[in-house]
Design goal:
The protein has about 100 residues and is mostly helical. The chain is globular and about 45 Å long. The N and C termini lie far apart (about 35 Å).
């Protein structure tokens, strides 16, 4: 089954965690990373995380970059999108413990 892309902000941020992070004045990178983790865990099954991150970046990054300094959540969202591209898929269970006899 293919993962779904969000079509609305409500789908991309179902608990409004990312939206609320932009409303917190003086929020730091550590708090944004914690919020991002909560956000990632709250996405419904079958929803594509990377497409959701891109949707959120398209919505929030232009508004955040118009300020003097970019918002730390924009940095975290970019890191999240880039980390997925550079991380190999995890093999769990027996397959991860077995070595190739060949």
């Amino acid at each position: 089954m293919a993962e779904r892309a969000p079509t609305t902000l409500a789908e991309a941020d179902p608990k409004n965690l990312i939206r609320e992070s932009f409303a917190i004045e003086g929020i730091g990178i550590g708090e944004c990373r914690s919020i991002f983790l909560d956000w990632a865990l709250s996405l419904p099954d079958g929803q594509d995380q990377i497409l959701s991150i891109r949707f959120l970046l398209n919505h929030y990054a232009p508004k955040a970059s118009s300020q003097d300094q970019s918002h730390p959540m924009v940095t975290v969202l970019i890191e999240g999108a880039q980390a997925h591209n550079s991380t190999a898929r995890r093999r769990g269970g027996r397959a991860a413990r077995m070595t190739d006899p060949g």
